[in-house]
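Quiz preparation item.
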């Protein structure tokens, strides 16, 4: 029997997961979403036909899984409000948090230490079913609950379990924040093409389709990215000159510094919000 899932929060990521579940024939009547905004609840109920309520505590009473899909700035307050209800339950639901920068330790403290917890770091392509989500579990999460989490989040893309929570900042740098890196690169390519005379619409289509094609070739896994790059390059050709220009500008070091700054900021956020 399908687990009963409650989403605390009805924002974009909650909607993405709900939509992914329903696309895989998950029963809508097993899903509840909450929000203090009645307009948002009306919208999500109209789109997905799931249960909705403004009462967070009532929403978790019969839940097998509670997804904390709210901003990290308010997660402490909401968690503390949920704690008395959680502690009174005979069967404690699995808590799945998709809030950035909030550690399992903080969640355990705020929620009263009674419920198993999985912390997830999704990214925005989850909203179109192409996400990449990193996961870490507290010690009391069962194998069955791990499989349930995988079922929920694999509906929005791939999932990868991390062996230690300390790795989640690196996962943020390589996946959680990384769509923005590609968008920046796409924009730079588009602008460069326009400066060379291509119409912007044409430049955008060619840039984005090329990005999609390159990622698809890399996902096939026949060759690693280094070899795929070399397969495109001819000796003394145009691609070789472009790559040489990137290397001269030390693109690899720029990427390394950017990802380290991202991971460092994720660590700071954990201290700030946790």
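Solution:
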């Amino acid at each position: 029997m399908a687990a009963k899932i409650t989403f605390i929060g009805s924002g974009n990521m909650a909607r993405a997961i709900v939509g992914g579940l329903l696309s895989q024939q998950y029963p809508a009547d097993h899903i509840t979403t909450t929000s203090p905004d009645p307009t948002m609840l009306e919208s999500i109920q109209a789109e997905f036909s799931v249960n909705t309520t403004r009462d967070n505590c009532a929403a978790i009473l019969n839940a097998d899984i509670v997804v904390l899909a709210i901003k990290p700035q308010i997660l402490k307050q909401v968690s503390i409000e949920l704690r008395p209800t959680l502690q009174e339950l005979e069967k404690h639901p699995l808590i799945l948090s998709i809030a950035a920068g909030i550690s399992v330790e903080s969640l355990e403290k705020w929620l009263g230490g009674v419920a198993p917890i999985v912390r997830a770091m999704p990214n925005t392509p989850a909203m179109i079913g192409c996400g990449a989500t990193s996961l870490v579990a507290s010690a009391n999460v069962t194998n069955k609950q791990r499989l349930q989490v995988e079922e929920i989040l694999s509906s929005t893309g791939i999932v990868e379990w991390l062996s230690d929570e300390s790795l989640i900042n690196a996962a943020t740098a390589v996946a959680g924040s990384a769509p923005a890196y590609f968008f920046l690169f796409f924009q730079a390519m588009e602008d460069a093409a326009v400066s060379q005379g291509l119409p912007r619409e044409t430049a955008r289509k060619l840039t984005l389709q090329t990005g999609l094609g390159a990622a698809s070739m890399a996902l096939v896994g026949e060759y690693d990215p280094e070899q795929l790059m070399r397969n495109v390059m001819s000796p003394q050709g145009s691609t070789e000159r472009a790559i040489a220009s990137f290397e001269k500008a030390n693109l690899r070091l720029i990427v390394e510094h950017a990802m380290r700054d991202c991971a460092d900021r994720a660590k700071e956020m954990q201290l700030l919000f946790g």
